[in-house]
Every structure is written in C-alpha cells, then in structure tokens.
Amino acid sequence: MNRTDRLYALVEELRVIAPRPRSGRWLADRFEVSLRTIERDINALQQAGTPVWAEAGRTGGYCLDPSRTLPPINFTAPEAVAMAIALENMAGSPFEQAAQTALRKLLAAMQGSDAAAARELASRVHLLGPATALPPVPALIADALSARRVLRIDYQDRVGATTTREIEPLAYVGTPTNWFLVGWCRLREDIRAFRTDRITSSVMTAETPEPRTLRAEDLTIPYGDIRALKTF
C-alpha cells in the first residue's frame, strides 16, 4: 500500500471507530508499518486539516471527530465516473489539485464494492485530446482566495514589461484559454485582472486585508459574458 492510499485508509479506520481511539501500535500493526511511520502519517493528516488528535492515557490513541467526517457515500458507479469526468476539466485551473484530492476522498468514502465498480467503469471511459489544455496555475495563486492574504507578484504584460505589485485577491475568472486572478491592485489603486500564466513570481505576505466588495460590473474582462458558478 502506498502512502496516499494508507492515509485515506487511516482516516476510514478512525472514522469507523469514532469517537473511540485507536492506538498508534494497533494502527502500525494493521498497516504493517512502524509506529514512527504512523506518527508521521497522523501529522500529515493534521497538517492537511483532518480533524484527528491524540488522546493521552493507557486507553488513549488517535481519535477522529465524527461530526466533521462523512459516513460512507452511496454514490453509484456512473455518478462517481460522471464526477471524475467533470473533475478532469479542472486541469489547468486554480482547483486542479483540489479536484484530484476530492476524487480520492470520494472513492475512499464509497462502499468497497461501489468503489470497485466505479474503477471498472472508469477503465472503459477514454478522453480524446491533451490532458491539460490550459497552462498550470502556480500553487500560491491557486490558494490565493482561500488563504485571504495579500500577494506580492511580478506580472508581465502583453508586451513583456514586468512590474511588481501587491494585490488583494478577490475572484477567479476562467476562459476557454486562460485563468485570471482578479484583485485590488495597490499599484494602480483599482481592481485588475491578472492572467495567471503571466504571473512570473508570487509571494504570500502575512497581511490579511480588509474585505472588499466585488460587483458584477467590476469584472470587465473583454472575452465575452461572465457567468457565475452554479451554487451548491
């Protein structure tokens, strides 16, 4: 079992027994690894935001908060494959990495037989064309909205001139050929849209700016009508 599979299996093992704990030694024996490996895995899960913690004492161990985890998901195989096809379209977007982890979480949460059926069905689906149609979005830019921090970027315009700017991220706009990060530009003192493939470097500062309101009329990118993402 590779590490990624083991991390998801660890979460599922703790979810099944929650809110009771599992000892590190029990988990090490279960997954045939060292106790030190389990400790590193738990730390990785905690760093990723998984609600798992250590409970001290003779009967202690690692616990998972059941109120913040999902029960087995009863997706059918066609539904899971439909989601995989939709998530395939996230390649080159700010949500590419999130789409990959979402699909792994979906499969890990499904009943074993349903997940196996989904994998078998997926093996019969093929896509024509390049896997990544858009330039990849740098990780800091992909995390810009959720991090809610000021970014310092070097931006190259259409003629190749580079400027350094501090921006307050406000939105993403996607076109068939590019993704834009929309933000308040402190250099121009106005809202600007930055093509992500023209951001040559980026640094996330420690500053959390005051929230700004973004109106529909602020999204003036000359590539057609802009539509909002469907809510869920």
Automatic annotation (TrEMBL):
InterPro entries noted in UniProt: CBASS_pafABC_assoc_protein, HTH_11, WH-like_DNA-bd_sf, WH_DNA-bd_sf, WYL_dom
Domain Helix-turn-helix type positions: 19-62
Location of the WYL domain: 139-201
Superkingdom per UniProt: Bacteria
Name of this protein: Transcriptional regulator
Gene source species: Arthrobacter psychrolactophilus
Taxonomic path: Bacteria, Bacillati, Actinomycetota, Actinomycetes, Micrococcales
